[in-house]
Design goal:
Elements: E1 2-6, H1 20-23, E2 29-32, H2 50-63, E3 69-74, H3 76-87, E4 92-98, H4 113-125, H5 127-134, H6 136-143, H7 147-161, H8 173-186, H9 189-198, E5 211-216, H10 225-231, E6 233-239, H11 247-250, H12 252-269
Parallel strand pairs: 1-2, 1-3, 3-4, 4-5, 5-6
Helix pairs in contact: 2-3, 5-9, 6-9, 7-8
């Protein structure tokens, strides 16, 4: 089956560069998405809703000749992937997420450790969410004027989300610098942040009927099994003590094993 990989912010399709080779052993094709407004990918000046982005990606897969496919979403990509299961269930045959957000994330003390991790994050580091969802263009003026400032802003998020893995946060210097260049060369830091302001108040979506798997990693991952099972057709749950928010880079082996196992399950039921 073909697999569509959807990144979040402030990463890019480059966050998946370590898994492409291994995943070609189980997928007929790997399709790397670029979110509208990120890099050179065009988007309206005001940004796009999650539902609109889901529609763009569904159309893109159709144009590539894929009527049925699996989607992986990381961070904000998990929200888009889940929206695709609601709007395009005839085409999306399975969804795997990591760093899952709406529809997966802890929503109360009953979620235990995931709720405690989320509460600690909310206390220590969610200020950027408030600024980017309400005043992104003012922040973009400063970040768009200084490559060092933009890189520092991205590094601050990695420091929040990744385990203590040395100066490269387990992501690799090549990725960190190439990813920052992806934003800088296209002048897209402002347009990328509008995904927050445009989707500040996401409407509730119905439970997803599509077979879904969730991988949870040790740092910067707030998915709750109870929420994921309530909001999705959850058929697989993978949990790891190591790894961070960008697990495709810092926990590549576990990530590939989880996604490969899910693909195998989907081939069995298809």
């Amino acid at each position: 089956m073909p697999i569509l990989l959807i990144h979040g912010w402030p990463t890019s399709f480059l966050a998946f560069h370590r898994i492409v080779g291994p995943m070609t052993r189980v997928a007929s094709e790997i399709v790397l998405a670029i979110l509208p407004g990120f890099g050179a990918a065009p988007a309206p000046r005001e940004g796009m809703t999650i539902a609109a982005i889901a529609g763009v990606f569904a159309d893109a897969m159709k144009w590539l000749g894929h009527s049925r496919f699996i989607v992986h979403g990381q961070d904000g990509g998990s929200v888009i992937a889940r929206q695709m299961t609601v709007d395009f269930a005839d085409h999306v045959c399975g969804v795997h997420v990591s760093a899952g957000l709406q529809g997966f994330m802890a929503d109360g003390p009953a979620c235990g450790d995931s709720w405690r991790r989320l509460s600690a994050f909310a206390d220590a580091g969610r200020g950027y969410l408030h600024v980017q969802s309400r005043r992104p263009d003012f922040l973009a003026v400063a970040l768009g004027d200084s490559p060092a400032g933009m890189l520092a802003w991205q590094l601050d998020k990695y420091q929040l989300w990744q385990a203590s893995l040395g100066p490269d946060f387990g992501l690799g210097d090549d990725f960190i610098l190439a990813n920052a260049t992806f934003y800088w060369a296209a002048g897209s830091i402002g347009s990328s942040m509008r995904i927050y302001s445009k989707n500040r108040d996401l409407p509730a979506t119905p439970p997803s009927p599509v077979p879904t798997a969730v991988s949870v990693f040790g740092t910067g991952d707030f998915a709750c099994r109870e929420v994921s099972a309530r909001e999705n057709n959850l058929i697989a749950w993978y949990e790891h003590a190591s790894g961070g928010h960008v697990a495709a880079l810092d926990a590549t082996g576990d990530f590939v094993a989880d996604l490969s196992n899910f693909v195998s399950r989907m081939e069995t039921v298809s």
